[in-house]
Amino acid sequence: MDAHRKHVRGIVDELMNNSIKAGATQVDVRVEMKEGEIIIWVKDNGRGMDAEKLAKIKKALDQPRRDELEEYYGALAGESMVGTGLSLVGMMTDRAEISSEPNKGTEIRLFRKTED
What CATH number should be reported for the domain holding residue 87? Predict the structure, then answer.
């Protein structure tokens, strides 16, 4: 589990940063680390997103895990994959759930398997 703590810290930092940029005055964060899986939940009261922007964010979070890319593309994956912070978050997680409503905020739940 210790090997995953660095990834969790980076993911939480990126999500909190985005919440603050979206004007949130309240950000709730919960991390549940259990055998086999880590669940990261962030909910804010920021500007929220319309359906079009929400779809773009979902696409960014739906990146394949980086270790899966490296297996497929070899060492080139790390150099050729350039994207937003959320794309990087997507590459560190297995599954994302996101909901948002304009002027009401955003809720993101991310799941990362810890068993190899």
Answer: 3.30.565.10
